[in-house]
Amino acid sequence: MDIRDRHPNLAEWNDLIEGSLADPDSEPILNLDPDDPDPLYDAIFVGGGAGGRFGAAYMRAMGGRPLIIDAWPFLGGSCPHQACVPHHLFSEAAEELDRMRWFSDELFFPKFDASRASILELVRLFLAGRASAHAFMNWQTKEQLDVSYVLNARATLVDPRTVRAGGRTFRARNLVLGTGARPLTPDVPGLDLHGVYDFVSVVEELDYEPTRCVVIGGSKVAMEYGSFFHATGCDTTIVSRSPVMRSSSLHHVDEDLRAYVVGGMRERGMDILEGAEPVAVHGAAGSVRGVTVRLASGEEREIETDMVFLGLGERPETTEAQAVLGIDVGPTGRVVVDHHMRTTTPNVYAIGDLIGGPMEMFKARKSGVTAARNIMGEDLEFDFSEYPDFLHTTYEVSWVGLTEAEAREACDEVIVIQMPPYVEGLDTQHLPLPCAEGTMLYAFSRPRLSGFQKLVVDGTTRKVLGAHHCGYGAKDAFQYLDHLIHRPEGLTVDELGWMNELFLNPEHFVQLSRLRAGKSTLTHL
Amino acid sequence: MDIRDRHPNLAEWNDLIEGSLADPDSEPILNLDPDDPDPLYDAIFVGGGAGGRFGAAYMRAMGGRPLIIDAWPFLGGSCPHQACVPHHLFSEAAEELDRMRWFSDELFFPKFDASRASILELVRLFLAGRASAHAFMNWQTKEQLDVSYVLNARATLVDPRTVRAGGRTFRARNLVLGTGARPLTPDVPGLDLHGVYDFVSVVEELDYEPTRCVVIGGSKVAMEYGSFFHATGCDTTIVSRSPVMRSSSLHHVDEDLRAYVVGGMRERGMDILEGAEPVAVHGAAGSVRGVTVRLASGEEREIETDMVFLGLGERPETTEAQAVLGIDVGPTGRVVVDHHMRTTTPNVYAIGDLIGGPMEMFKARKSGVTAARNIMGEDLEFDFSEYPDFLHTTYEVSWVGLTEAEAREACDEVIVIQMPPYVEGLDTQHLPLPCAEGTMLYAFSRPRLSGFQKLVVDGTTRKVLGAHHCGYGAKDAFQYLDHLIHRPEGLTVDELGWMNELFLNPEHFVQLSRLRAGKSTLTHL
């Protein structure tokens, strides 16, 4: 279907996408220049997810000539279809359900009715609405970003300059591979039973309401989905080989932050088994009935459950790219690239979840942009070894820079500024600090639930080394804190303390810093 | 009561403060150096609110010798007692009630029961907990900040170097006046009736559950408290001489932002009468029963109500300071100071809500710090003519820098990057963008409620001129955006677009900028 001269509005795009998704025989969607039927593109972006879409848009903005090819009938990739967007919807529901439980039959909150809370219903809410974001991205990429694309057509790699899709052949000076990753599956018997899901299949395939869940894994996805399931009233057990929030995929997790976050999950009744691993998933009549887990002690435990959720990370699928293009792949399955996003094969770049580093949006998009800018003649390196990070439980948890322990390794003098305050022995259990948007109701009735925040400072240079927050409303700020503390001159407590706070602000770093900024020798607060 | 050698914990402080507030004959609380009974302080801070406490703490940190005197038995001033803290608690309740109404009997939300929502109950929740923040500030100021103070003792000004309080005389090289402001009362008959409140008396005196409310005023306090009352089910009418959100006390309010925010209030059923003013408040049996309002048309309307809320701004009480110290006061009642916070009387400074500019926390605290640093020998100017700002309805609304209209006045070429996108005629009414923490549930069921955001950019210099947001979770970020866009070198779209977003972030400025950063000639998005 050639839509170059059509300009579907959002509702029309929505219908076109829904229709294409529902019909396996639906035809490719072509947004190509009819006046130039066989152009040599500057780059073909194989995969129009976050990295491909942003990379292609940047290249086009620079005057270059990109083409995106994607197997799905929409741009944006897995994020709005199966990953970040449903996760955020579910996490917001978890936050809300959590509040409604704590305040059950108090104030304006009615008695909490767990029978109303349904994982399946929230999945269906997501499914009914997800194409609207797809529609917007297809519309925007065509009408505002002026990028050519072929959607609903799987790309077949021919050589480093040639790709086939939708029965046509496309040629380019470069290829940019951005086909993403898929959830990992552990080597445990019973995973073929009905009732075993990962973050993709839980959205695509869930067809009943689980009452108990065993989550395998201890990193972000496991914590986030586990917290959501548990908040709906689905009793959740997390089975994690490493301590949760301390896997190798998460860097800079401060121990006090971790203790607050994981303690909060346990306080809400989640069973968290660390140092444990699944031995087998058992079923009856084709469906999950239980999991055998080997505990840290070596003892085995049977856990009854009607759902198993795999939250073990992801791995890219690179077989075709390796075979056809000869690109190198590292030991964990990620495509090897340099700081320009160049693979080991000339004129072939790789971006997003295909390459190493965090499988996060900033890296996906900026790696796409980096590839585009280098193809267009810039000499630009993208180093994603340092970045801000976050996860959700029933809270929003954000962090950037060094932990207190890392700072003590790196500096002579480390100063900590935090809430509740950095003192021993004070009766802070009823102290409603921190409090801010999102934790005010907690602050006035269950102060211990109102969050935690910590700023880590080099006592000698006075520079902020790290910031750590559990609560709500600070995530956006951490984007800018990351920029400020990682810029060459850094950010001192004195500069931070002279900023204009918007009180009550979710993190109190500006004003707390001001209370110490006057001291020539900094001390804890 | 001399507590210098006592170290009350938070619970003990709480009891001491509650006891002092309850007993009009309670004695002063003295935290003074017993070894130096008659010192010459560097400054006496008359008023230990935000400005006095931060100023004194900074002075002490610099090695100076401050004394705080306050009539209340706690430090922190009106903010945690009657102003910002209850306001934020009420605004959070309003956000939550709003969500529970929209989702009544949908998903996990039960049928909304307006009879459970009570202004009085939330006021009582606040009253029961407010001393815990007071306790913390008294504890922190003594134990962590090492500042001397006399509390629960009204200061009497003697001369620019002498103050009496609690039966003792204190001397200093300088005075720093920080006694704050009190809500304004309009010249309308009937305000002595039971049922007329301002933000102070609604906390201190409310003793029944209002069912209808007329709010007089159109600026922050009126919008915030009006939105809260209305969210509880108390039908609210706002009577404002100027268009709401467009009073002279609010600068840089973008018209599109205003339209979204005020439209949202109206959509929720609030009656907003602009160009209108109250003529008289009527009562029966000593209590409010109605308000006569003169409408913009000149016509008079009777509004039945059992509550009137005055949200008209505040004015400092300066009679004593003018009479004793001879300081000058400007036409609006604010103490005249220079950029050093010096009044027209030598060695007398004024800070916080006593002086001009916004009655906001950043100005209060930083003006206190400015006075302290100048007294300690620095030459420091504090210019608060530019600052980020915010207010609450059932949303959190944040803004900084120029509006689109202001930018068009100032620049040749203005570029707007916003969500929903800056285009005419697109069917965006079902577009769930922006969406982020706090608006995900709306995004998937009532997309038009998911917020608004706009970035205003100089198309020539590529610098960000202003940012405007309605939603949740962006307020904290605006502290840093303010710093970045107002620093001498400013912030370009290109720098912003190279930051590391934490996706889904409440404001999408980083990634939206990135979609345009590649273009040598910027265009709207």
Automatic annotation (TrEMBL), chains A, B:
<protein>
    <submittedName>
        <fullName>FAD-dependent oxidoreductase</fullName>
    </submittedName>
</protein>
<dbReference type="InterPro" id="IPR023753">
    <property type="entry name" value="FAD/NAD-binding_dom"/>
</dbReference>
<dbReference type="Pfam" id="PF02852">
    <property type="entry name" value="Pyr_redox_dim"/>
</dbReference>
<dbReference type="InterPro" id="IPR004099">
    <property type="entry name" value="Pyr_nucl-diS_OxRdtase_dimer"/>
</dbReference>
<feature type="domain" description="FAD/NAD(P)-binding">
    <location>
        <begin position="41"/>
        <end position="368"/>
    </location>
</feature>
<dbReference type="Pfam" id="PF07992">
    <property type="entry name" value="Pyr_redox_2"/>
</dbReference>
<dbReference type="InterPro" id="IPR016156">
    <property type="entry name" value="FAD/NAD-linked_Rdtase_dimer_sf"/>
</dbReference>
<keyword id="KW-0274">FAD</keyword>
<dbReference type="InterPro" id="IPR036188">
    <property type="entry name" value="FAD/NAD-bd_sf"/>
</dbReference>
<feature type="domain" description="Pyridine nucleotide-disulphide oxidoreductase dimerisation">
    <location>
        <begin position="388"/>
        <end position="494"/>
    </location>
</feature>
<keyword id="KW-0285">Flavoprotein</keyword>
